[in-house]
C-alpha cells in the first residue's frame, strides 16, 4: 500500500487507532497499517480522533467496492474533504449523497437542494433534501457499501439524524451495509427536554427522544436499530469506526461549522437551547452573522438595551424574521457555556423571561408572520410547554412534567452507548 501520508499530504494530526464496532457489545478486529498508533499513545492525546481520521481502520475495507457516501462540508480527513481524500487513495466512490444545506453546505435553512455533479471529482451528487429523502432502489443497486460521515450537534430538530434514518432504511431494504465514521457530539453531555409526542411527528421531529439526545451519530444508529424505528422493524447492518479518546463529557470544538447558521462554536453549543425560539415571534439572529447567539424583536424596545438588525444574507438567511427591523433583546455571544455544562440541563430561563417581557403575548407563539422552520409545539415535541409558559409555570414545574418519559429515555439510551 502506498504511504497514506504521501497520498493525502496529511500531517501527524491524523492519529489512527480505534475499533470497528458492529454493536454496543460486539467488536471486530481493527485493521492496521503503518499509521496505527499504540493505545498508550492515544491515551495521552488531548483531543478526540474522529472515525474518518483513522484511515488505517477502514481503507482496505473500502478498496475494491463500489461506494456510496453520505457527506457534507463537515466530512473531512485532516483538513481535506473526505471525498477528495478517498478518491486520491483509489476508493471507487460512485455516488455522493448530500443532506440539508447540500454536499458543500452552502444552501440556506430549509432550502430544497438539487442533484448535481461534483465539479472537482465528476461524481454524481444526489440530494436527500429535495425530491428524495432516501436513495432509490436503482441508486442502491449501483453500490456495494454506504459510508455515512456527517457532523451532528445532538438536537432532535437538527435534520441530519433524519437523513441517517432514511439512509439506514434504504440500506436495510436493499441488503447493503452502512459504514459509519463516527464524530463527537459537541452537546454529548446534555440529555434533556420533553420526549416527542406521537402526534407531533414531523420533519423536525422523527423520533421519540428529548430535545437534546446525548448520542453520537453511530450511537443513534444503534438506537434506531435496537428500538425498531425502521419500517417493519427492519435492521440495517452497521460497521462503526469509533472516535478515539472520547467520552460524552469531552469538550469538542468543531473544525468545520455544520451549517450556514451554526457558524461559531458558541452557536453550536447554544443551539439546543435557542432553536425552540424559532417557534416564537423572536429572532434568533438569522439575517446576521451571529445567528443562534442573540434573541430579540422590535416590540422589546425599551425592555432591553441590546439591539441587532436582521438583513437578507445569501446562503444563510435570505428572508429572515423581522428583516431590516431593529430588534431588542439578549446578547448571548459571551454567555459562559460552563454554566450549561455544569447543570446538564436545557436553559429554560430565557424562554420564561422573554415571554414575560414581550408586550403582545397573544402573538409570542404566532408564526403566521414567519417562514421559520416550524411551530413551537413541533420544535419542542410537546403541546404542554407552550401552555405552561403562558400559564406562568415555574421551571421546576415544567421539568417535572417531562417525567417519567425523560428518565425512561435516559435508561434506554444506556443500551446504545459506545462511549462512557
From TrEMBL:
Signal peptide: 1-23
InterPro entries: NamZ, NamZ_C, NamZ_N
Any single Pfam family the record assigns to this protein: NamZ_C
Domain Peptidoglycan beta-N-acetylmuramidase NamZ N-terminal: 67-265
Gene Ontology MF, one: peptidoglycan beta-N-acetylmuramidase activity
Protein origin, superkingdom: Bacteria
UniProt domain Peptidoglycan beta-N-acetylmuramidase NamZ C-terminal: residue ranges: 269-419
Keywords associated with the record: Signal
Keyword Membrane among UniProt keywords: no
Protein's UniProt name: DUF1343 domain-containing protein
Organism, scientific name: Dyadobacter fermentans (strain ATCC 700827 / DSM 18053 / CIP 107007 / KCTC 52180 / NS114)
Amino acid at each position: 500500500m502506498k504511504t497514506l501520508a504521501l497520498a493525502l499530504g496529511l500531517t501527524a494530526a491524523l492519529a489512527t487507532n480505534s475499533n470497528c464496532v458492529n454493536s454496543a457489545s460486539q467488536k471486530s478486529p481493527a485493521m492496521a497499517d503503518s499509521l496505527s498508533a499504540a493505545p498508550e499513545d492515544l491515551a495521552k492525546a488531548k483531543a478526540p480522533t474522529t472515525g474518518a481520521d483513522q484511515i488505517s481502520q477502514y481503507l482496505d475495507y473500502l478498496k475494491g467496492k463500489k461506494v456510496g457516501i453520505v457527506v457534507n462540508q463537515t466530512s473531512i480527513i485532516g483538513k481535506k474533504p473526505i471525498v477528495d481524500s478517498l478518491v486520491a487513495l483509489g476508493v471507487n466512490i460512485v455516488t455522493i449523497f448530500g443532506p440539508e444545506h447540500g454536499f458543500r453546505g452552502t444552501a440556506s435553512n430549509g432550502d430544497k437542494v438539487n442533484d448535481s455533479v461534483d465539479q472537482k471529482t465528476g461524481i454524481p451528487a444526489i440530494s436527500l433534501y429535495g425530491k428524495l429523502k432516501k436513495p432509490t432502489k436503482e441508486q442502491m443497486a449501483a453500490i456495494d457499501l454506504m459510508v455515512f460521515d456527517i457532523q451532528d450537534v445532538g438536537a432532535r430538530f437538527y435534520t441530519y439524524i433524519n437523513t441517517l434514518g432514511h439512509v439506514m432504511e434504504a440500506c436495510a431494504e436493499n441488503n447493503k451495509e452502512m459504514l459509519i465514521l463516527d464524530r463527537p457530539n459537541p452537546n454529548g453531555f446534555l440529555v434533556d427536554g420533553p420526549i416527542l409526542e406521537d402526534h407531533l411527528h414531523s420533519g423536525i421531529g422523527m423520533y421519540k427522544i428529548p430535545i437534546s439526545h446525548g448520542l453520537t451519530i453511530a450511537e443513534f444508529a444503534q438506537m434506531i436499530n435496537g428500538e425498531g424505528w425502521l419500517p417493519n422493524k427492519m435492521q440495517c447492518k452497521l460497521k462503526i469506526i469509533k472516535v478515539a479518546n472520547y467520552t460524552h463529557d469531552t469538550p469538542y470544538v468543531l473544525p468545520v461549522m455544520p451549517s450556514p447558521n451554526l457558524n461559531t462554536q458558541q452557536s453550536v453549543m447554544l443551539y439546543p437551547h435557542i432553536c425552540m425560539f424559532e417557534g416564537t415571534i423572536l429572532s434568533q439572529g438569522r439575517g446576521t452573522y451571529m445567528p443562534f447567539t442573540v434573541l430579540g424583536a422590535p416590540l422589546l424596545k425599551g425592555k432591553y438595551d441590546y439591539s441587532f438588525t436582521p438583513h437578507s444574507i445569501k446562503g444563510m438567511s435570505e428572508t429572515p424574521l423581522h428583516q431590516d427591523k431593529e430588534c431588542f433583546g439578549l446578547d448571548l455571544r459571551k454567555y459562559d457555556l460552563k454554566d450549561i455544562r455544569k447543570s446538564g440541563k436545557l436553559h429554560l430561563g430565557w424562554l420564561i423571561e422573554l415571554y414575560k417581557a414581550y408586550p403582545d403575548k397573544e402573538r409570542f407563539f404566532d408564526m403566521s408572520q414567519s417562514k421559520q422552520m416550524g411551530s413551537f409545539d413541533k420544535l419542542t415535541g410537546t403541546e404542554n410547554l407552550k401552555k405552561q409558559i403562558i400559564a406562568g409555570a415555574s421551571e421546576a414545574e415544567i421539568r417535572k412534567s417531562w417525567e417519567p418519559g425523560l428518565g425512561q429515555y435516559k435508561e434506554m439510551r444506556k443500551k446504545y452507548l459506545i462511549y462512557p
